[in-house]
Protein backbone atom coordinates (compact mmCIF):
# COMPACT_ATOMS: atom_id res chain seq x y z
CA UNK A 1 0.00 0.00 0.00
CA UNK A 2 1.14 3.54 -0.76
CA UNK A 3 -0.79 6.58 0.46
CA UNK A 4 -0.37 10.30 0.06
CA UNK A 5 -1.47 12.46 2.99
CA UNK A 6 -1.62 16.20 2.42
CA UNK A 7 -0.73 18.17 5.55
CA UNK A 8 -0.23 21.79 6.51
CA UNK A 9 1.98 22.59 9.47
CA UNK A 10 1.75 25.69 11.61
CA UNK A 11 2.78 26.82 15.04
CA UNK A 12 0.78 28.72 17.62
CA UNK A 13 2.94 30.58 20.12
CA UNK A 14 5.70 28.06 19.34
CA UNK A 15 3.59 24.88 19.63
CA UNK A 16 3.18 22.98 16.35
CA UNK A 17 -0.05 21.74 14.75
CA UNK A 18 -0.16 19.42 11.74
CA UNK A 19 -3.52 19.67 9.98
CA UNK A 20 -4.45 16.64 7.85
CA UNK A 21 -6.10 18.25 4.88
CA UNK A 22 -6.67 15.18 2.68
CA UNK A 23 -5.83 11.49 2.58
CA UNK A 24 -7.23 10.78 6.06
CA UNK A 25 -9.47 7.79 6.83
CA UNK A 26 -13.19 7.77 6.12
CA UNK A 27 -14.84 7.89 9.56
CA UNK A 28 -18.39 7.55 8.26
CA UNK A 29 -21.26 9.72 9.41
CA UNK A 30 -22.06 11.07 12.87
CA UNK A 31 -20.66 13.94 14.88
CA UNK A 32 -17.01 14.52 15.78
CA UNK A 33 -17.39 12.64 19.04
CA UNK A 34 -18.59 9.54 17.18
CA UNK A 35 -15.85 9.96 14.58
CA UNK A 36 -13.24 10.14 17.34
CA UNK A 37 -14.41 6.74 18.62
CA UNK A 38 -13.99 5.23 15.14
CA UNK A 39 -10.61 6.90 14.68
CA UNK A 40 -9.45 5.67 18.07
CA UNK A 41 -10.68 2.12 17.46
CA UNK A 42 -9.59 1.59 13.85
CA UNK A 43 -6.95 4.10 12.81
CA UNK A 44 -4.42 4.39 15.58
CA UNK A 45 -1.55 3.57 13.25
CA UNK A 46 -2.61 6.44 10.97
CA UNK A 47 -2.33 8.72 14.03
CA UNK A 48 1.13 7.41 14.79
CA UNK A 49 2.28 7.60 11.16
CA UNK A 50 1.39 11.27 10.82
CA UNK A 51 2.77 12.72 14.06
CA UNK A 52 5.43 10.37 15.39
CA UNK A 53 9.03 9.99 14.26
CA UNK A 54 10.38 9.62 11.63
CA UNK A 55 7.88 12.06 9.99
CA UNK A 56 7.15 14.04 13.13
CA UNK A 57 8.17 14.24 16.77
CA UNK A 58 6.64 13.95 20.23
CA UNK A 59 5.81 17.67 20.18
CA UNK A 60 3.49 17.60 17.17
CA UNK A 61 -0.26 17.85 17.65
CA UNK A 62 -2.27 16.44 14.74
CA UNK A 63 -5.63 17.82 13.65
CA UNK A 64 -7.72 15.66 11.34
CA UNK A 65 -10.36 17.72 9.53
CA UNK A 66 -13.68 15.86 9.32
CA UNK A 67 -17.11 16.62 7.92
CA UNK A 68 -19.12 18.26 10.76
CA UNK A 69 -22.56 16.91 11.67
CA UNK A 70 -23.50 20.46 12.70
CA UNK A 71 -23.67 22.27 9.37
CA UNK A 72 -23.23 25.67 11.02
CA UNK A 73 -19.59 24.61 11.55
CA UNK A 74 -16.89 25.26 8.98
CA UNK A 75 -15.29 21.92 9.87
CA UNK A 76 -15.14 19.19 12.44
CA UNK A 77 -11.77 18.28 13.94
CA UNK A 78 -10.12 15.48 15.88
CA UNK A 79 -6.93 16.41 17.72
CA UNK A 80 -4.28 13.83 18.53
CA UNK A 81 -0.67 13.54 19.65
CA UNK A 82 2.23 11.10 20.01
CA UNK A 83 0.33 8.76 22.34
CA UNK A 84 -3.38 9.21 21.70
CA UNK A 85 -6.16 11.75 21.41
CA UNK A 86 -6.97 15.14 22.86
CA UNK A 87 -10.59 16.08 23.55
CA UNK A 88 -9.88 19.67 22.61
CA UNK A 89 -6.82 21.74 21.84
CA UNK A 90 -6.71 25.53 22.08
CA UNK A 91 -3.46 26.14 20.25
CA UNK A 92 -4.52 23.49 17.71
CA UNK A 93 -7.85 25.25 17.06
CA UNK A 94 -5.90 28.43 16.27
CA UNK A 95 -3.69 26.36 13.94
CA UNK A 96 -6.79 24.98 12.19
CA UNK A 97 -8.17 28.49 11.63
CA UNK A 98 -4.81 29.77 10.29
CA UNK A 99 -4.66 26.73 7.98
CA UNK A 100 -8.23 27.21 6.67
CA UNK A 101 -7.41 30.87 5.99
CA UNK A 102 -4.18 29.85 4.23
CA UNK A 103 -6.21 27.49 2.03
CA UNK A 104 -8.70 30.28 1.22
CA UNK A 105 -11.53 28.30 2.85
CA UNK A 106 -12.38 31.07 5.34
CA UNK A 107 -12.04 34.85 5.51
CA UNK A 108 -11.84 37.11 8.59
CA UNK A 109 -14.95 36.87 10.74
CA UNK A 110 -16.67 34.43 13.09
CA UNK A 111 -16.60 30.67 12.53
CA UNK A 112 -17.63 27.54 14.39
CA UNK A 113 -15.71 24.27 14.73
CA UNK A 114 -17.16 20.93 15.89
CA UNK A 115 -14.89 19.09 18.34
CA UNK A 116 -15.58 15.79 20.14
CA UNK A 117 -16.50 17.77 23.30
CA UNK A 118 -18.71 20.39 21.69
CA UNK A 119 -18.81 23.24 19.22
CA UNK A 120 -16.30 26.03 19.78
CA UNK A 121 -16.32 29.53 18.32
CA UNK A 122 -13.36 30.98 16.45
CA UNK A 123 -12.81 34.49 15.18
CA UNK A 124 -10.21 35.30 12.57
CA UNK A 125 -9.44 38.97 13.13
CA UNK A 126 -8.50 41.34 10.29
CA UNK A 127 -4.91 41.63 11.57
CA UNK A 128 -4.49 37.81 11.59
CA UNK A 129 -4.97 37.21 15.31
CA UNK A 130 -7.31 34.38 16.25
CA UNK A 131 -9.74 34.12 19.15
CA UNK A 132 -11.17 30.80 20.27
CA UNK A 133 -14.32 30.60 22.44
CA UNK A 134 -13.60 27.31 24.19
CA UNK A 135 -15.96 24.73 25.64
CA UNK A 136 -17.41 25.61 29.08
CA UNK A 137 -14.72 25.10 31.71
CA UNK A 138 -14.90 24.57 35.45
CA UNK A 139 -12.98 23.59 38.58
CA UNK A 140 -13.86 20.13 39.77
CA UNK A 141 -11.88 20.07 43.04
CA UNK A 142 -9.75 22.53 45.02
CA UNK A 143 -6.69 21.78 47.15
CA UNK A 144 -6.43 18.08 46.29
CA UNK A 145 -3.42 16.42 47.97
CA UNK A 146 -1.33 13.99 45.94
CA UNK A 147 1.58 12.13 47.49
CA UNK A 148 4.45 12.35 44.99
CA UNK A 149 7.33 9.92 45.68
CA UNK A 150 10.56 11.86 46.12
CA UNK A 151 8.71 15.18 46.64
CA UNK A 152 6.09 14.62 49.35
CA UNK A 153 2.51 15.84 49.40
CA UNK A 154 1.71 18.26 46.58
CA UNK A 155 -1.52 20.29 46.68
CA UNK A 156 -3.31 21.21 43.46
CA UNK A 157 -6.66 21.88 41.81
CA UNK A 158 -8.42 19.61 39.32
CA UNK A 159 -10.09 21.51 36.48
CA UNK A 160 -11.60 20.92 33.05
CA UNK A 161 -10.68 23.27 30.21
CA UNK A 162 -11.43 20.89 27.32
CA UNK A 163 -8.92 18.40 28.79
CA UNK A 164 -8.37 17.44 32.44
CA UNK A 165 -5.65 19.32 34.33
CA UNK A 166 -3.96 19.13 37.70
CA UNK A 167 -2.83 22.69 38.48
CA UNK A 168 0.04 23.21 40.91
CA UNK A 169 1.11 26.54 42.36
CA UNK A 170 3.41 25.39 45.18
CA UNK A 171 6.13 23.23 43.68
CA UNK A 172 9.33 25.08 44.60
CA UNK A 173 10.74 24.84 41.05
CA UNK A 174 11.88 27.66 38.82
CA UNK A 175 9.85 28.01 35.63
CA UNK A 176 12.46 28.73 32.99
CA UNK A 177 13.18 27.14 29.63
CA UNK A 178 16.60 25.87 30.73
CA UNK A 179 14.86 23.89 33.48
CA UNK A 180 12.47 21.82 31.36
CA UNK A 181 14.05 18.48 32.25
CA UNK A 182 13.54 19.00 35.97
CA UNK A 183 10.04 20.38 35.36
CA UNK A 184 9.19 17.41 33.16
CA UNK A 185 10.47 14.95 35.74
CA UNK A 186 8.39 16.55 38.52
CA UNK A 187 5.22 16.94 36.44
CA UNK A 188 5.47 13.35 35.20
CA UNK A 189 5.80 12.04 38.76
CA UNK A 190 2.70 14.05 39.70
CA UNK A 191 0.82 12.54 36.76
CA UNK A 192 1.85 8.99 37.70
CA UNK A 193 0.93 9.62 41.36
CA UNK A 194 -2.50 11.00 40.40
CA UNK A 195 -3.15 7.83 38.46
CA UNK A 196 -1.83 5.53 41.17
CA UNK A 197 -3.91 7.28 43.85
CA UNK A 198 -7.11 7.16 41.79
CA UNK A 199 -7.48 10.94 41.55
CA UNK A 200 -9.77 11.65 38.58
CA UNK A 201 -11.87 14.38 37.05
CA UNK A 202 -15.65 14.21 37.01
CA UNK A 203 -17.22 11.25 35.18
CA UNK A 204 -14.00 9.40 35.99
CA UNK A 205 -12.03 11.69 33.63
CA UNK A 206 -8.36 10.85 33.25
CA UNK A 207 -6.22 13.78 34.45
CA UNK A 208 -3.59 13.60 31.73
CA UNK A 209 -2.20 17.16 31.78
CA UNK A 210 -0.16 18.64 34.65
CA UNK A 211 0.23 22.42 34.78
CA UNK A 212 2.72 24.27 36.97
CA UNK A 213 2.62 28.01 37.60
CA UNK A 214 5.16 30.67 38.50
CA UNK A 215 5.74 34.39 38.26
CA UNK A 216 5.64 35.90 34.74
CA UNK A 217 8.69 37.30 32.99
CA UNK A 218 7.06 39.03 29.99
CA UNK A 219 5.75 42.59 30.34
CA UNK A 220 1.97 42.53 30.84
CA UNK A 221 1.77 38.80 31.61
CA UNK A 222 -0.15 37.68 34.72
CA UNK A 223 1.45 34.26 35.17
CA UNK A 224 3.84 31.82 33.54
CA UNK A 225 3.09 28.13 33.09
CA UNK A 226 4.67 24.81 32.25
CA UNK A 227 2.25 22.25 30.85
CA UNK A 228 3.17 18.60 30.54
CA UNK A 229 1.06 16.85 27.91
CA UNK A 230 -0.05 13.17 28.03
CA UNK A 231 2.87 11.90 25.90
CA UNK A 232 5.49 13.60 28.15
CA UNK A 233 6.10 16.50 25.75
CA UNK A 234 5.74 19.99 27.20
CA UNK A 235 3.56 22.59 25.55
CA UNK A 236 5.58 25.38 23.97
CA UNK A 237 2.46 27.57 23.94
CA UNK A 238 0.59 28.75 27.05
CA UNK A 239 -1.87 25.89 26.30
CA UNK A 240 -5.39 26.97 25.42
CA UNK A 241 -7.17 24.28 27.41
CA UNK A 242 -4.68 24.74 30.29
CA UNK A 243 -5.27 28.50 30.35
CA UNK A 244 -9.01 27.77 30.36
CA UNK A 245 -8.60 25.44 33.36
CA UNK A 246 -6.54 28.11 35.14
CA UNK A 247 -9.18 30.78 34.54
CA UNK A 248 -11.88 28.42 35.82
CA UNK A 249 -9.93 28.15 39.11
CA UNK A 250 -9.34 31.91 39.32
CA UNK A 251 -13.02 32.59 38.64
CA UNK A 252 -14.09 30.03 41.27
CA UNK A 253 -11.82 31.77 43.81
CA UNK A 254 -13.22 35.21 42.88
CA UNK A 255 -9.76 36.27 41.65
CA UNK A 256 -10.73 36.94 38.02
CA UNK A 257 -13.90 38.71 36.97
CA UNK A 258 -15.96 38.20 33.83
CA UNK A 259 -14.28 39.97 30.87
CA UNK A 260 -11.15 40.81 32.86
CA UNK A 261 -8.03 40.07 30.75
CA UNK A 262 -5.70 37.26 31.80
CA UNK A 263 -2.35 37.11 29.99
CA UNK A 264 -0.84 33.65 30.28
CA UNK A 265 2.85 33.26 29.47
CA UNK A 266 4.29 29.93 28.34
CA UNK A 267 7.56 28.34 29.37
CA UNK A 268 9.20 29.78 26.22
CA UNK A 269 7.83 33.29 26.86
CA UNK A 270 4.99 33.33 24.29
CA UNK A 271 1.56 34.55 25.44
CA UNK A 272 -2.21 34.15 25.03
CA UNK A 273 -4.57 36.87 26.18
CA UNK A 274 -7.77 35.42 27.60
CA UNK A 275 -11.09 36.54 29.10
CA UNK A 276 -14.19 34.65 30.08
CA UNK A 277 -17.97 34.86 29.98
CA UNK A 278 -19.93 33.30 32.83
CA UNK A 279 -22.42 30.62 31.75
CA UNK A 280 -24.56 28.41 33.98
CA UNK A 281 -22.01 28.17 36.80
CA UNK A 282 -19.14 27.54 34.37
CA UNK A 283 -16.98 29.88 32.33
CA UNK A 284 -16.60 30.17 28.57
CA UNK A 285 -12.93 31.10 28.04
CA UNK A 286 -12.04 33.26 25.04
CA UNK A 287 -8.39 32.83 24.14
CA UNK A 288 -6.57 35.09 21.70
CA UNK A 289 -3.24 34.35 20.03
CA UNK A 290 -1.54 33.99 16.67
CA UNK A 291 -0.74 30.98 14.51
CA UNK A 292 1.68 30.88 11.57
CA UNK A 293 1.61 28.39 8.71
CA UNK A 294 5.15 27.15 8.07
CA UNK A 295 4.96 24.10 5.78
CA UNK A 296 2.81 22.43 3.15
CA UNK A 297 3.77 18.80 2.58
CA UNK A 298 2.65 15.44 1.34
CA UNK A 299 3.41 12.53 3.69
CA UNK A 300 4.12 9.29 1.84
CA UNK A 301 3.00 6.09 3.55
CA UNK A 302 4.72 3.12 1.99
CA UNK A 303 4.18 -0.24 3.70
CA UNK A 304 7.61 -1.40 2.55
CA UNK A 305 9.10 1.20 4.90
CA UNK A 306 9.70 -0.62 8.24
CA UNK A 307 8.74 2.59 10.08
CA UNK A 308 5.81 3.44 7.83
CA UNK A 309 3.49 3.64 10.88
CA UNK A 310 5.90 5.59 13.07
CA UNK A 311 8.41 4.47 15.66
CA UNK A 312 6.50 2.87 18.55
CA UNK A 313 7.09 4.37 21.98
O1 LIG B 1 -3.48 24.41 23.54
O2 LIG B 1 -5.06 23.25 24.52
C1 LIG B 1 -3.94 23.36 24.06
C2 LIG B 1 -3.06 22.17 24.08
C3 LIG B 1 -3.31 20.96 24.65
C4 LIG B 1 -2.19 20.16 24.42
C5 LIG B 1 -1.27 20.91 23.72
N1 LIG B 1 -1.82 22.13 23.52
Fill in the keyword field for this structure.
about 325 residues, globular, binds pyrrole-2-carboxylate, 17-stranded mixed beta sheet, 17 strands, about 20% helix, alpha+beta, single chain
Describe the structure.
The chain is an alpha+beta fold and 313 residues long. Helix content is 20%, strand content 39%. A hairpin with a 3-residue loop joins β9 (138-148) and β10 (152-160). It starts with a strand and ends in an 11-residue tail after the last strand. The structure holds pyrrole-2-carboxylate. Pyrrole-2-carboxylate binds at residues 15, 61, 86, 89-91, 229, 235, 237, 239-241.
Gist of the model:
With 313 residues, the protein is α+β, with helices and mostly antiparallel strands. It contains five helices and 17 strands.
List the helices and strands and how they pair.
Layout: E1 2-12, E2 15-22, H1 32-42, H2 44-51, E3 61-66, E4 75-80, E5 85-86, H3 90-102, E6 109-115, E7 118-124, E8 130-133, E9 138-148, E10 152-160, E11 164-168, H4 180-196, E12 209-214, E13 223-228, H5 240-252, E14 262-265, E15 271-279, E16 282-289, E17 291-302
Parallel strand pairs: 2-3, 4-6, 11-12, 13-14
Antiparallel strand pairs: 1-2, 1-17, 3-4, 4-5, 6-7, 7-8, 8-16, 9-10, 10-11, 12-13, 14-15, 15-16
The structure holds pyrrole-2-carboxylate.
